[in-house]
Structure formats: C-alpha cells, structure tokens
Amino acid sequence: MLSEEEIERYKRQIRIDKIGAEGQDKIKNSSVLIVGAGGLGSPILLYLTGIGVGKIGIVDNDILSLSNLTRQILYRTEDIGKKKVLIAKERLQALNPNVIIEAFPECLDATLAKNIFPSYDSIIDATDNFETRYLINRVAVEKEKPLFIGAVGRFTGQVMSVMPHKTSCYNCVFPEKDEETVREMSKRNEDLGVIGTIVGTIGSIVANEFIKHILNIGSHYFNKLLIIDLLNNDISAISISRDPRCRVCGNPQ
Ligand SMILES: [Zn+2]
Fold first, then answer.
1. For 132-172, how does the pLDDT look when each residue is reduced to its tens digit (9 = 90+)?
2. What is the pTM of this model?
3. Which protein residues have their CB within 5 A of the ion that is ligand 1?
4. How far apart are CA 22 and CA 26, in angstroms?
5. Which fold does the domain 4-239 belong to in CATH?
6. What local confidence, expressed as pLDDT, does residue 192 receive?
7. Is residue 13 within 8 Å of residue 47, measured between CB atoms?
8. In angstroms, what is the span from residue 208 Cα to ligand 1's centroid?
9. Cα–ligand 1 centroid distance for 119 (angstroms)
10. Distance 173 CA to ligand 1 centre (A)
11. Does residue 69 sit in helix, strand or coil?
C-alpha cells in the first residue's frame, strides 16, 4: 500500500496508464543491486531512487577524484577524496527517504557477490572494467538473477539485459579470454576516454530496462545488444542468441 506522501510524490508516474498505483506498489516492493557508483551508476541511482524502488544496494570501493566530475553527476567538487558509496547513500537518502539504501564500500569479488546477490531481485552492472563484468555475469547466472548491463567508451555505449538460462548472457556474446587479455581490455577501455553525455544516456536506458522488467511492460533488450554512437547519431539493436556451449550458462563439452 502507498502512503499519502507516496501518492503525491509519485503522482506524475502513477498517472501513466501502464504504471498506476498498482505498478508503483510493484516498484516499491522491488530491489536491485547496482555494482559501480561512477558515471553509469550516478544516473541509474538517481533515477531509481527518485522513482521509488524499495531497496537499492550499491557496491563501489572508489574514492572520488577530480577527473570523475565530468560525468559522475551524483557528486560535487567538495566530495573529492571521499568514498563514493558513502556520499551516494547520503545524497540518495536525502532525495527519497522512502528508499532503503544499502552501501557496500568494497571491491566486488566472488565471495561478496555470492553473499549479497541473493538479497536482491535484480543486478545492474554499471562497472567500467571487464574483470568485474565477467564476475557479475557469472554470479548473476549462477544465482538466477536478471542482469542489466551498461557499457561506455568515447561517444559510444551498449546495453544488454540477461535472463539467466533463458536469454543470452554476456559471456555468450563476448566469451571471456584469459586473465591477462581481460586486464588489457580494461586498460585499453580506460585509455579511450568517455564523454559524460553518453554515460547519462546509457545509464537512463539501463534504469528504464529494470523498471519495465519489474512492471512487466514494454519490450526489452533480452537477446539484443543495443549500440548507441552519439558522435554519428547512430542507434541500432542487433539480435544475439544463447551459445549452447557457453562456459557460463550453457553445457560446455
Ligand atoms: Zn552464456
């Protein structure tokens, strides 16, 4: 049930016929774990907190630095040197006190992932390195948690959603290479640079995917990879499919 305050707070989205009070109640009863409170994590966290998701977990071990401020819109110059998750929790709680915010100021490893993923309905991958991306995909598939992935570099970004053992997982499309190659991929991605606007675009789409999933409305990026290039205004979604021999979600021979 929604309180009077909640009905007033959310009235503009409750008015949408596909949401209504019933949909708002579903959003209130949902939970999501967001890995990464940086460029992608900022808009995702702000929107999902504003929209009224019941419980939001945030995993991030980073300290805010000056060069983060071009795109990490949760933070201010005065926050430099502080732990991102702790500032994020404070700011999000001020935005919407109805939402339970759980902060994990830690680096995500397999043990932490296996411990905390089961406490949330879905997982959002808002990271910027491939080691963590493969780990999140592995544990989300193992724990049967719907996974929503955003990735960015320069002016381009990608979105894909995963319904474990039903639709293509990240590893089906981008099979994991050896450890050193994965590390090099992360380093190369960092060297590419990124513009704040693509991070905001991709972050909003990922947050929207989660909301539609919770409400069971609209179409989704399951078995699809969305690719957006804001430099050339090129937007396309390509079909992808499960690899029956995927080492994560298939039956490898
Ligand atoms: Zn797979």
1. 999 999 999 999 999 999 999 999 999 999 999 999 999 99
2. 0.97
3. 169, 171-172, 246, 248-249
4. 6
5. Rossmann fold (3.40.50)
6. 86
7. no
8. 23
9. 23
10. 7
11. coil
Residue 253's pLDDT is what?
63
- CA 167 – ligand 1 centroid, Å: 8
CA of 137 to the centre of ligand 1 (A): 9
* Mean pLDDT for all residues in the chain: 96
Tokens of 86: 């702790």
> Whose CA is closest to 24, among 36, 11, 33?
11
Ligand 1 centroid, distance to 40 Cα (angstroms): 24
What 3-state DSSP class applies to 137?
Answer: helix
**Average pLDDT of span 225-238:** 98
Q: 206 C-alpha to center of ligand 1: Å? A: 20
What's the CA-to-centroid distance between 174 and ligand 1, angstroms?
A: 9
Name residue, tokens 């704040």.
Answer: 196
Taken in order 186, 192, 195, 198, the sign of the CA dihedral is: negative
Query: How many other CB atoms sit within 10 Å of the CB of residue 70?
Result: 14
In Å, what is the CA distance from 147 to each residue of 20, 59, 160, 246?
25, 15, 8, 17
Which two structure tokens, joined as six digits, stand for 167? Answer: 């639709």
